[in-house]
Structure formats: structure tokens, C-alpha cells
Amino acid sequence: MNTITIDPKSESSSYKVVVGKNLLSTIHDLIDLKSYSKILIVTDTNLESHNWLKKILIELGSLPIYSIVIPAGENHKNLESLSLIWQKLTNNKFDRKSLIINMGGGVIGDMGGMAAASYQRGIDFVQIPTTLLSMVDASVGGKLAIDFGGLKNNLGFFKQPKMVIADIDFLTTLPNREFLSGFAEIIKHGLIHSKEHFEELQTSGGAISKPIEDSADTIDKYSSSSIQSLAIQSIEYKKPSDLQDQELIDLILHSINVKADIVTEDPQEKGIRKVLNFGHTLGHAFETISLNSTTPILHGEAISLGIICEAYLSYLIGLISIIEFGEIHETIKELQLLHSLSDFEWANNQFFNDKVKNIIQGDKKSEFGKIKWSLLEGIGKGVCDIEISEYELVQEAVDFLKGD
Ligand SMILES: NC(=O)c1ccc[n+]([C@@H]2O[C@H](COP(=O)([O-])OP(=O)(O)OC[C@H]3O[C@@H](n4cnc5c(N)ncnc54)[C@H](O)[C@@H]3O)[C@@H](O)[C@H]2O)c1
Ligand SMILES: [Zn+2]
Q1: What's the CA-to-centroid distance between 303 and ligand 1, angstroms?
Q2: Is residue 129 in contact with ligand 1, taking CB distance under 6 Å?
Q3: pLDDT at residue 301 greater than cutoff 50
């Protein structure tokens, strides 16, 4: 079992994130459950059908436990579902000494957290993230939200959980597409804060360590120099599906460490925390447009597309080199994350470019109508609050994804 302590500056609430295997069976040792008057488990229909609700209820035993099962999926992260949780708490006379345990992906964590943060002006909650994405990202940092008025995460609070328990056993039932999409946030964490973490996904550990002779004929894609091209081609990657338990636990821990470093420094996103939005301005636009189509993409998939575009934008405005961009692009492709818009009918629609522009102008990161970009200054170094006056550059970055 591995533990990280998060102690957000200027907030009284420090809490532990525990990462490991078979943690549900030790839940009594991890949380002082007897100190709570009542406990509500918030989960979704997929976790219920994989018997995770049954398992946690057995582990919790004879405590005063209630549960609520919300229909799975982003389109249920809304006021209606939140109302159901509030209603359950009210009907069962939950008091201020009660606890909510959110067992699910980012949807359940964000929404159950919001119920806890608002019920009787705030009760304790514990996050048990069950997707890779929510383990490394959503469950840590105390951002809670629901979607409203057609906008993602439009209503929400900041409130830190009492504890986060990330048990990799949950990943055994997670669909592969969901598992892979979690790697987008891992890559993001490496890119904005830790080159070592980014390179953990490479078996050869570094861009120029292992040149491969026969790649000379392959590209002139990222640069006119074939030597530079060789460097990009030489990296070998770990296949996410081949990771051993300990490798996965280490990767999750390192990724959480990045997020912990950033949210400790800036819990309320007044400054440096904005770097976590790298890949998300355009990523959210793609996600939003796809959700209104017959081929919706997952949050992590949208973010891998957003990372490519925003890394390309960083290159276009001179913040990173073409070689660094090439390494990022290759990593996303090699890990089999989504890296092209060409197959999606919603992206080939004549209104697509206007829709993207419209959505990013209304983005939460805009201030006084100006888009504030979180970009890269290098691999392992994010920057925030960048303004780009020529929209043509943004368009060029989006077009890059169509040509690939
Ligand atoms: N608060 C934050 O800081 C933050 C950060 C990143 C993302 N988010 C939010 O998180 C959400 C995305 O999170 P997500 O990708 O976890 O989505 P999700 O909660 O919708 O889970 C993805 C799917 O996997 C299913 N599932 C979850 N765990 C499972 C398991 N162990 N076995 C089988 N099926 C399982 C769910 O039912 C769902 O269908 C978005 O709403 C996003 O806005 C929040
Ligand atoms: Zn995200």
C-alpha cells in the first residue's frame, strides 16, 4: 500500500490518497467509519452490475449504510441526479456527522462530492475512484461539479475529500477503451510537470537513447532533418495492457504526485493550477461536439486530441520545438490513444470549425472574452494564461488533426 498526503496551502484540510490492490477489504482500517452517524454509498449502474456495490456492502458489514445507484454516463451528471442524492440524504435524515462514499468514475466522484459539499453546508466524503482517469485525476484536488445548461462542469464547488482510496482491482472490470483513455491524463501530467513521468511510458527511457537504423526512410514529417526524425522514431513504448500490477500502481502514484504538487500549491485555481487545463480547451470543444452526435468520444479521448492540438499550438507560437511536438505526437499514437479527427462525421461537418470557435470562446478559462491558453514550454513544463491574438493559428492546430 502506498500513500500520498495532500495538504492544500491555505486550507485546513489535509488528506491521504492510498493506492494499491485489494484495498476494499481493508476499508475499516483506512477510514474511521464508526465515527459517522450514517453512510451513503453513491455509485452507478455499471459498478452495480459488476457486483462492486455488493462487495463494498459486505465489507462495510453492519454499519448504518444506505446506497444510491445513478444511471451510468456523463449525460446523468446533472441536476436531476444530484437532486436524487439530496433527496436520499433528506428522506433518511442524514445529519452533519454523516459520510458519503463515492464509488465510481469521475462522474460519480464529481457529483457525489458536490452533494456532500452542499448538503447541510457540507458533510465529509471519501472518493473511491474506479476508472484509471478518476484515480489519477478526477478524485484528487477537490474540484466537484455537474453539467448544466449544455455546459460541462458549469456548476460546482471546491471541497477536498476526507480520503481517496485508489484500488487497482476495480480496473479488472473496466472496459479497455475506458482504461486507455485514462492514459491521456497521465500523459498530460508528465507533459506539464514531470519529464520523468512522461518517459515512464517509454521502455527505452528517452528520446535519443536508441536510434534505429531502418527508420531513415520513414519520415520527413516533423523536420527536414532525418537525424531529428531518427530520434523520434527510436523511442519504444510500454503497451498499457501489458503493465504489471506494480508498474500500474507506480504509474498511478507518480501521476497523482504531479496533481498533488500542483493542487497543494494552488487549491482554488487562482494561478499555477491552470496548467492542469492543458489539452482541455480544445479537448472540451471536441468532447462537447461529439456528445451531440452518433459517435460520442470519451473525456480522455477528447483530451488526447486536445493535447496534440495544444502541443502543436505551443510549437506554432514558438514555445516548443518541432522535435518535442513530434515526440508528444508519437507517444499518443504509439499508446493507441485517439490521435485523428478524420474518421468522425461530426468533425467533417461544414459547421465544425465555427462550433469549435464558439465553444472555446465560452470556455470557463476565458476572461473578459479572451481565451487564456494553458500550453507547454517544454516536455515537463506547462505555462498558463497565454493569449493568442491570431485565431488562424488555433485553426491550423485543429486542421493538423484532420490531416493525420
Ligand atoms: N474533478 C476533476 O478534477 C476532474 C478531472 C478530470 C475529469 N473529471 C470528470 O470526470 C468525468 C470523466 O471520468 P471517467 O472517465 O471516470 O467517467 P465515468 O465516471 O463516466 O466512467 C466511465 C465509464 O466507466 C464505467 N465504470 C467506471 N468504473 C468501472 C469499473 N471499475 N468497471 C466497469 N465499468 C466502470 C462507468 O459506469 C462509465 O460508464 C468527466 O465528467 C470529467 O469532467 C473531473
Ligand atoms: Zn480531464
Answers
A1: 13
A2: no
A3: yes
